[in-house]
Amino acid sequence: MSDILMPKATAVWLVDNTSLSFEQIADFCGLHFLEVKGIADGEVARDIRGADPIANGQLTREELDKAVSTPSYRMKALVSRHAELLKPAKKAPRYTPVSRRQDRPDAIKWFVRHHPEVTDAQISKLLGTTKSTIEQVRNNTHWNSTNIKPVDPVTLGLVSQIELDAAVRKAAAVKIKQAEKLGIPLDDPSLKPAAAIIPDEEEDTYNSRPDLSVEDVFGSAPSRPVHDEDDED
Predict the structure, then answer these.
(1) Nearest 5°: CA angle at 112, between 111 and 116?
(2) Helices marked H in 115-228 — which ranges?
(3) Is it the case that residue 232 has pLDDT exceeding 80?
(4) CA angle, residues 51, 56, 61, in degrees to nearest 5
(5) Has residue 231 been placed in a domain?
(6) What is the extent of the structural domain holding 13?
(7) One domain for residues 175 and 133
(8) Of 48, 75, 108, 126, which is most buried by a Cβ count within 10 Å?
(9) Tell me: the pLDDT tens digits for 144-163?
(10) How confident is the model over 100-132, as pLDDT tens digits?
(11) According to the lineage, what is the superkingdom (predicted)?
(12) What's the pLDDT at 45?
């Protein structure tokens, strides 16, 4: 497979500016012979401007001259610095340390409870887990379900706060767009930021005793003894 940057544009330039055969151009650009013939006939890549491979640093003048003088010769491309920079960087799969893998079900539970709008695919990508594990945690069929508690994945060290915020923001935007399209109210609690979510235990404790006073919580302040000013003398 050819690593030529902009192969069709390069083929257009070679067709227009050299006497190379279609086979030579096709081999150099990684295209089919008939595709190069179509370019020469004006049937393919009509609106593509030619790209000079010599100016791009992908071909030397000596290599081109050698190919022109020897029709059987196949040109060898140079490694272009520009082509390397434009290649999409392939992300390595997320690695979760062994010591942290047991925490993933807790993080999954946190997503399921507090951000149901985040898709299983997003959770799987963020935490490095599988969709079947997410489904087991959601349905309480995980082998360790009795011990799984919702814990913020940032606290567990499984993701960064930036990654979490980006995932939640993206999922919320999709859900809001769908809600607007279907005419559904946008007051879903799952669309609130994570910081605005009160843990269930704290919320239940507060709501169960709304009539508590300061004295009930902290106790009455001890009375200070009153001294007569004359006693101090």
Answers:
(1) 90
(2) 120-127, 131-138, 153-156, 161-182, 200-208, 214-218
(3) no
(4) 95
(5) no
(6) 7-86
(7) yes
(8) 108
(9) 889 999 999 988 888 888 98
(10) 667 899 999 999 999 888 999 999 988 888 999
(11) Bacteria
(12) 79
Tokens 């980006």 locate to: 166
Band the pLDDT of 177: cuts 50, 70, 90: confident
Same structural domain, 118 and 140: yes
**181 in a domain, yes or no?**
yes
Residue 44 identity: V
**Same domain membership, residue 106 and residue 70:** no
Look up residue 190 and give its two tokens. Answer: 């799952």
pLDDT band at 85 (very low <50, low <70, confident <90, very high): low
b/e 21-32 (16+ beta carbons within 10 angstroms → b)? ebebbbbbbebe
Interior/surface letters 198-222, b for 16+ CB within 10 angstroms, e for the rest = eeeeeeeeeeeeeeeeeeeeeeeee
Q: According to the model, what pLDDT value does residue 75 have?
A: 92
Q: How far apart are CA 131 and CA 137, in angstroms?
A: 10
Answer yes or no: is 107 within a domain. yes
- Split into its structural domains, the chain has a count of 2
Residue 104 and residue 47 share a domain: no
- Do 76 and 123 belong together in one domain? no
Residue 194 pLDDT > 80, yes or no?
no
Tell me: do 143 and 62 sit in the same domain. Answer: no
